[in-house]
Amino acid sequence: MVNVNSATLAGAEPSDSREREKTGGEGTRRDFLLLAATAVGAVGAGLAAWPFISSMRPAADTLAEATLEVDLSPIETGQAITVVWRKKPVFIRHRTADEIQKAESQNVAELRDPQPDSERVKKPEWLVMIGICTHLGCIPLGQQPNDPTGNYGGWFCPCHGSHYDESGRIRQGPAPRNLAIPQYEFIDDTTIRLG
Length: 195
Known about the structure:
single chain, three-stranded antiparallel sheet, elongated
């Protein structure tokens, strides 16, 4: 025969403190263990994923190309140079007073990609732009003295016949947009930093 305590059958609190701890604080311990296990799992997942995340950072040689300083002092008025920045050709032209006047006097409303010259340059005499045609990525001609400059005195892409003016704006041909202007700033009167 089983001897049963009448207080236990009636739902009264057990008298043993370990049993009381077990039944009264069980939810709190379970919650704590769940939170602790979740935190440990999250930290473990982060540590396991770190090599993959770290591999997506740019390499040291790429970071070195992130900025480029260009000395403009040897470039005479009317001359143009091409530098390579982030594996792209960047056209830098020291514009003449005539080129500046033509670029500034153009009626922007007539352009396919309307942009005034003042938005494309930081100093009127210096035009800095990425030398990649916006049609199919060719490199337009017009940087060398003997290159054809197209119908508007700027650059000409012979692959598909895009003509750009002295501000690098598309004027004729299939290119949909002007030649892009990179992020750059003047460090002093004769030096720019690309990037």
